[in-house]
Design brief:
It is globular and about 70 Å long. Strand 6, helix 3 and strand 7 form a beta-alpha-beta unit. 37% of the residues lie in helices and 24% in strands. By secondary structure, it is an alpha/beta fold. The protein is built from 10 helices and 13 strands.
Length: 283
């Protein structure tokens, strides 16, 4: 999804225009979320499962762009806790050195696989029964997110999520025109992301042939992401999932969809408004 570059011995991700739009969307919603939750008798946290190094470089302007963790850390009123996770040690090292992160006991920077860390160490700290809530960003670099993390968030009732549905990487990995040629590792990876093999019915239409053997016709990207959004509700336990926001590359091809899921109708209304505000932006 991004490319890396070195600047003064540091590693930064280079991001395109639509990734900047995504950061704006998440920042705007996190601001509204914090305002609303600050008026309630609840402790609330910001969680970033693929936090990165804190700052990106814009491919268009070559300027530095604050990443999602720094955007969240600058929101007022502040979240009560911040959990920033990344598997890459270099990114974590850089993130820890930002002034917004240093010497703040409420900011927890964790190196590890979010598929494990969220379930074992972070989600137990934001339980509904303990009057805690969380906004969680799950923005993997590729098809690296497991369904059990998403399902746990939904069934906890205390966690809202923004999720990168990486349709381009999904197509490269598993949704081929000839599904019988997909490698075993690709099927395993897709099963982990989707939670089971029901993605096959979402991705392919069965068509009878003259020889009796069925033929499988690949459906469009929109149908696949719609099926995933339905799954977030029917299996994942989320109550409200607005139409996802397509994110494009410089050729106007959809690289991924930004998906939101919550238990609150007001959250859905706010996100739908923000999505519509940014849907027709052009770089």
């Amino acid at each position: 999804m991004v490319e890396g570059s070195k600047t003064r011995e540091l590693f930064f991700d280079e991001i395109g225009y639509w990734s900047e739009v995504k950061l704006d969307i998440i920042r705007e919603y996190a601001q509204e979320y914090s305002i609303i939750l600050s008026k309630q008798q609840l402790a609330y946290a910001y969680i970033d499962g693929f936090a990165g190094s804190g700052v990106h470089i814009s491919k268009g302007t070559r300027e530095f762009v604050p990443g999602s963790p720094l955007n969240a850390l600058r929101i007022q009123p502040p979240f009560h806790e911040y959990y920033l996770v990344d598997l890459d040690g270099n990114r974590i090292k850089q993130l820890r050195n930002f002034p917004e992160v240093k010497n703040r006991p409420e900011v927890h920077v964790i190196q590890g696989n979010c598929n494990e860390v969220l379930l074992s160490r972070i989600f137990p700290k934001v339980r509904y029964e303990d009057y805690r809530r969380a906004l969680c960003l799950l923005d993997p670099y590729a098809l690296h997110l497991n369904w059990n993390v998403v399902e746990r968030a939904g069934k906890m009732r205390s966690v809202e999520i923004f999720l990168n549905f990486p349709i381009m990487d999904i197509n490269r990995t598993a949704l081929w025109l000839q599904p019988e040629k997909v490698a075993d590792w690709g099927i395993t990876r897709m099963n982990s992301f989707w939670g089971d093999e029901s993605w096959r019915k979402a991705a392919y239409a069965e068509q009878a042939t003259l020889f009796g053997e069925p033929d499988y016709i690949k459906r469009g990207n929109q149908r696949v992401v719609e099926a995933y959004c339905e799954r977030l509700k029917s299996v994942g336990g989320f109550g409200f999932v607005p139409e996802p926001m397509p994110m494009r590359n410089s050729n106007n091809a959809v690289v991924y969809y930004l998906v939101f899921a919550s238990q609150k109708p007001v959250a859905e209304r706010i996100v739908r408004h923000i999505f519509n505000k940014h849907r027709d932006r052009r770089g």
